[in-house]
Design brief:
The chain is α+β, with helices and mostly antiparallel strands and about 190 residues long. About 50% of the residues lie in helices and about 10% in strands. The chain has nine helices and four strands, in the order βααβαααααββαα. Strands 2-1-3-4 form a four-stranded mixed beta sheet, sandwiched between helices. Strand 3 and strand 4 form a beta hairpin. Helix 3 runs antiparallel to helix 4 and helix 3 packs parallel to helix 5. The longest helix has 20 residues. It is elongated and about 55 Å long. The two termini are about 20 Å apart.
């Protein structure tokens, strides 16, 4: 969500059935209102093993996304965390005006299971254990933190990006440059995540 050339990128690892994740929703809305197109958000699907309805809810969000309604489904799922059974998901999809044949087919075939597995593997690589976990231009912020915690880091990152842009870094190269010195988390692992 947000423009591809936003100076601040937030990657959030979230679970639709996690009560702490739903508490961050108003914070993200405030970030959007406050910063507008200076921030973009990447949603990463990390359903926790003990949330039995979460995996299918994440598939449903991606099936809705294939029809241009990811964020709308995202909001509905967080508003209805205790009602995430297959019939519930189909009801939400119908309420959003989705093509139900396509939606049901995606769930029946498990079309988005691989994408969710990839997001979960990424969470493991960057040690995003539990949910929610947020990476603001690569800086980790764990838990359902208030807007002020996000604001502090976003403001610091905007200052950094202003300097880089004034030194000639293009918007296209900004994010890769900001995260280029990422840390390795495991001393035995030579790969930088």
């Amino acid at each position: 969500k947000g423009p591809v050339d936003a100076p601040v990128t937030i990657v959030t690892f979230t679970d639709f059935e996690c009560p702490f994740c739903s508490k961050v929703g108003p914070t993200y809305k405030k970030i959007e209102e406050t910063y507008g197109d200076k921030v973009r958000v990447f949603f990463k699907h990390t359903p926790l093993a003990f949330h039995k309805n979460a995996p299918l809810a994440h598939e449903a969000s991606l099936a809705a996304g294939a029809q241009g309604k990811f964020w709308e489904m995202h909001d509905v799922l967080f508003e209805n965390q205790k009602k995430l059974t297959r019939p519930d998901l189909e009801s939400y999809a119908e309420g959003l005006g989705l093509n139900m044949a396509k939606f049901k087919k995606a769930l029946d075939k498990g079309t988005y299971k691989a994408q969710i597995a990839d997001d979960m593997a990424m969470a493991e690589k960057v040690q995003a254990k539990g949910t929610p976990n947020h990476f603001i231009n690569g800086r980790k912020l764990t838990g359902a933190k208030p807007f002020e915690d996000f604001k502090k880091i976003i403001d610091e990152e905007l200052k950094k990006t202003d300097v880089l842009l004034s030194q000639g870094t293009s918007l296209e190269d900004l994010y890769p440059k900001l995260i280029s010195k990422g840390k390795t988390f495991n001393p035995l692992d030579a790969t930088v995540h």
